[in-house]
Amino acid sequence: MIHFQINxxxxxxxxxxxxxxxxxxxxxxxxxxxxRLPSIRELAHTLGVNPATIVKAxxxxxxxxxxxxxxxxxxxxxxxxxxxxxxxxxxxxxxxxRQLAVEAMQAGSSGELVMExxxxxxxxxxxxxxEE
Amino acid sequence: MIHFQINxxxxxxxxxxxxxxxxxxxxxxxxxxxxRLPSIRELAHTLGVNPATIVKAxxxxxxxxxxxxxxxxxxxxxxxxxxxxxxxxxxxxxxxxRQLAVEAMQAGSSGELVMExxxxxxxxxxxxxxEE
Amino acid sequence: MIHFQINxxxxxxxxxxxxxxxxxxxxxxxxxxxxRLPSIRELAHTLGVNPATIVKAxxxxxxxxxxxxxxxxxxxxxxxxxxxxxxxxxxxxxxxxRQLAVEAMQAGSSGELVMExxxxxxxxxxxxxxEE
Amino acid sequence: MIHFQINxxxxxxxxxxxxxxxxxxxxxxxxxxxxRLPSIRELAHTLGVNPATIVKAxxxxxxxxxxxxxxxxxxxxxxxxxxxxxxxxxxxxxxxxRQLAVEAMQAGSSGELVMExxxxxxxxxxxxxxEE
DNA sequence: GTGGTCTAGACCACT
DNA sequence: GTGGTCTAGACCACG
Lengths: 132, 132, 132, 132
What we know:
4 copies of one chain form a homotetramer.
Chain A lengths: L13 H14 L8 E2 L2 H8 L3 H13 L3 E4 L3 E4 L8 H21 L4 H21 L1
Antiparallel strand pairs in A: 1-3, 2-3
Chain B binds a DNA duplex through helix 3.
């Protein structure tokens, strides 16, 4: 079952949190291609946020090719993951990997701990995909 | 040799970029405890930004315990990495690890690619620390 | 009713005075968790100071966990007092207690006078909390 | 035996720390009227700080009537504590007492803890005075 | 020389 | 409307 929530204290913009959660549900296989997402007004109501916030989040996700807004019909998960080369993937993921490495050193962490955490999070996603 | 630069196109606030670069130099061992950082005015001049921007970046880093601003003397790298438990480190690093995992899935990447990237970035930092 | 004011003669920075006053209103129960504080622009206008000064005061209070700045929504008193151990409280309060004791001796004051003053100020806060 | 030290991380100006320490030694009876303090150049050398810092601290203390700088002879603790009325003492001490009370509430402390800390610090000073 | 505070005003991002 | 960032420039406090 999908469930969205906004943490107003985190400093992360509400629309960004929503985007991350949609991506998370897709990555974990809980949301699949063709599945319907809550309507803008419905989600705005249940989350208690301004509809404009949902509009922004859905708009950005559509721009990234993650979802499709079909006028009058609803919001749906796109049919397929965007195709890209490994080089492109590295380009996207490297800054995040680097930030993780730097923050880890800064926190006095070992490399092992970092690898363990990433492995864990990858594992969680794989496990959920298996269950569906 | 340390060298800072600001990318005004990236959308990331200048003060945030500066913070990341200082942390990077410390994580890679290029800057060590007690080392002096460029003065506010000096750095503002070389980067071509307003001194207030440097003040904000340095101020935040001071809050995080990374550097110390000493009135009339200058800016210095703090003596030691903040002491924290492994549980605390996980708490800080897990969201980053999770975001990396989700973005990787979203990009259609394999788990292997992610692990490889993190290993690479950790390796780069370790290598630089070794060289110093 | 809350009312802020800045004394430009005191030598204490305006942003520091504001921080103290916000803390005072919370300590006395006049401001409670979830209450909204004046917006940055509004407060800057009523106090006749630059918005950046309010930004600094509110920013520091946010760092201390006293208030939350919510983008596009406003500024709010944080939900709960920070949890800390008695040992941590002593660590924070002891320097202030010590300074008070030393200043008292220096002023030729009796210990009784000091205890009386502290008791009085604690009582005032408790009284206000009771009234709300 | 008197011993001064400066903490460069505390954020408190060095000259202020020195002033506080001189007052502390007098309040605790370790320094008495007529006792000689280290010379400016001597103290600057042992503390590793700029002589101007000592000049500022001693100057302020002289201004407050705590010490006397006798040209060519040295620096001495003043003969007597400044005489002031109880009303004046309250006026000086109340802001400190109030700040202590507010910070205590903010830290979620009980009134008992605060009173205990003040009592303790007063006791320490009295005990030292007794020993001398 | 250093950092710390403040003003006046602009433009952007979020809800 | 809200907060967040940044510029240009002034003046003060500290060492």
